Write a sequence for this structure.
């Protein structure tokens, strides 16, 4: 059988091709003003009426301050309802919203702010400490606005910023050119190098909202309750938070993951839909803490950012008593999800089918020829979600696409006869052992099935004769005394010779991961 291009369903056009500002402004007004939209971890409840009022007030003040279409406003904060209000207000006035990781150091912030050049930065009392050292830089923002209640000399308090705005003044969101104007600047995951600034247009992000509401995909609706602990600076957390507002899903914000708080929140708020990442799936599947809480309200579990194995999916299904764990695969550069498993489909290990408007091809990396089912190659994409490009980096933008205009993912995978996609590993992370390709994820997945292993990360260790040999970094399960020899033998008994742990095993306190749950293999390499 020859190779084919996989195609997602067409645009159903139930969201207008307009600015994100118009889409959300009109979308919020459709809901009962007394309906609760957002609850935060301090039990502050924001109704749709309050959300509209505050987002419009902030938009008016942004205009008064001189913010105009395509100006950049940056947000450096933990998850908070004010974060979402700021994003909406930015959309209303046609500004470009630039969420950044709240853990970035001054040096990292210097890199990103010098590229995005924001006029305003919304921050917290904690994150402002890494912004102030950049005060002498030419790109330093005109004003800092602090979400926290305390007054700081260097920043204006968020509530004070909203004072003296005429609530009775008429307001209409600014229209933009949806396919040209940038709604969001997000940073790439940076798993293999310095993150880049990804430009997503209003039209790009509209595709994410279509997928989020489509019952064949994420399917958020007004009967759902969901929980937001994935960081809003990441496309996954950002999309779920905003889509929940658009589709009437009650959205509980947690500013960070805490196991007991997370489980108690599911129990207390009767959460129906969990959008999470593999480390949380691992926690839900293996932690004895889970049995102490009533999680029976959960009906739908979606996991993204890294592949899950059949064994982990099955274990999590049994623990949570759900019909299936749904995997989603995506990239910041394609505005989020490009494949997703439909609800209740029993098909293990797959990341699902192509999402609306997207086309996927899997090619031989050397010849660029289309591959038939079950042959592993690089995934490449076209569609309405594909980014405008990397801000300030024309060379990287050009290199990101092939000659047919498909975005190169750098991920290896294959598809089956039904068009379901399976992710194998990152192209650049494959271990080359004597010419054999060894996917680290395959070894990690097997190691995680061992009762003594809490978490695992595998990389290639340079070797004169073999090129590279696999080495495993292991976090032990509490009260388990698993040894290096035991794990080396365990892999040897279950894997072909080229995949054995010739580099040995190292026991560590934790596996370094990005906020979205991806293993930071470069950090593991630094440990070598």
């Amino acid at each position: 059988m020859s190779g084919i291009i996989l195609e997602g369903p067409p645009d159903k056009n139930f969201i207008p091709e307009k600015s994100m500002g118009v889409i959300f402004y009109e979308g919020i007004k459709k809901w009962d003003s007394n309906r609760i939209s957002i609850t935060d971890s301090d039990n502050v409840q924001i109704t749709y009426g309050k959300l509209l009022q505050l987002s419009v007030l902030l938009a008016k003040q942004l205009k008064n301050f001189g913010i105009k279409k395509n100006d950049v406003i940056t947000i450096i904060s933990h998850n908070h309802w004010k974060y979402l209000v700021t994003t909406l207000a930015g959309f209303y006035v046609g500004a470009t919203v630039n969420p950044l990781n709240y853990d970035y150091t001054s040096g990292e912030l210097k890199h990103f702010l010098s590229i995005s050049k924001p006029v305003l930065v919304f921050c917290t009392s904690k994150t402002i400490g890494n912004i102030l050292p950049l005060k002498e830089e030419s790109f330093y923002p005109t004003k800092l606005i602090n979400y926290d209640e305390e007054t700081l000399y260097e920043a204006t308090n968020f509530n004070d910023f909203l004072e003296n705005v005429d609530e009775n003044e008429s307001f209409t969101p600014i229209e933009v050119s949806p396919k040209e104007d940038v709604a969001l600047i997000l940073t790439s995951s940076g798993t293999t190098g310095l993150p880049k600034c990804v430009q997503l247009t209003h039209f790009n992000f509209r595709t994410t909202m279509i997928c989020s509401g489509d019952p064949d995909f994420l399917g958020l609706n007004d009967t759902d309750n969901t929980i937001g602990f994935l960081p809003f600076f990441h496309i996954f957390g950002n999309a779920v938070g905003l889509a929940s507002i658009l589709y009437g899903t009650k959205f509980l914000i947690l500013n960070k993951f805490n196991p007991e708080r997370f489980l108690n929140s599911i129990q207390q708020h009767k959460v129906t839909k969990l959008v999470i990442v593999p480390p949380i799936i691992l926690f839900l599947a293996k932690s004895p803490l889970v049995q102490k809480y009533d999680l029976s309200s959960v009906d739908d579990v979606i996991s993204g950012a890294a592949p899950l194995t059949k064994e982990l999916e099955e274990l999590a299904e049994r623990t949570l008593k759900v019909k299936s764990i749904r995997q989603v695969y995506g990239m910041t550069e394609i505005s989020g999800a490009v494949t997703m498993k439909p609800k209740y489909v029993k098909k293990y290990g797959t990341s699902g089918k192509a999402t609306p408007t997207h086309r996927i091809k899997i090619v031989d990396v050397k010849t660029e020829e289309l591959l038939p089912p079950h042959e592993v190659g690089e995934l490449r994409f076209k569609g309405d979600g594909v980014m405008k490009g990397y801000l300030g980096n024309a060379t990287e933008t050009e290199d990101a696409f092939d000659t047919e205009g498909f975005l190169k993912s750098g991920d290896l995978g294959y598809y089956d006869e039904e068009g379901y996609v399976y992710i194998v590993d990152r192209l650049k992370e494959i271990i080359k052992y004597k010419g054999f390709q060894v996917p680290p994820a395959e070894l990690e997945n097997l190691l995680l099935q061992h009762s003594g292993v809490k978490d695992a990360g595998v990389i290639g260790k340079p070797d004169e004769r073999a090129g590279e040999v696999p080495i495993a970094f292991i976090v032990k399960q509490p009260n388990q005394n698993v040894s290096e020899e035991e794990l080396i033998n365990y892999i040897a008994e279950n894997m072909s010779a080229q995949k054995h742990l010739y580099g040995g095993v190292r026991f560590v306190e934790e596996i370094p991961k990005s906020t979205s749950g991806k293993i930071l293999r470069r950090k593991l390499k630094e440990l070598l």
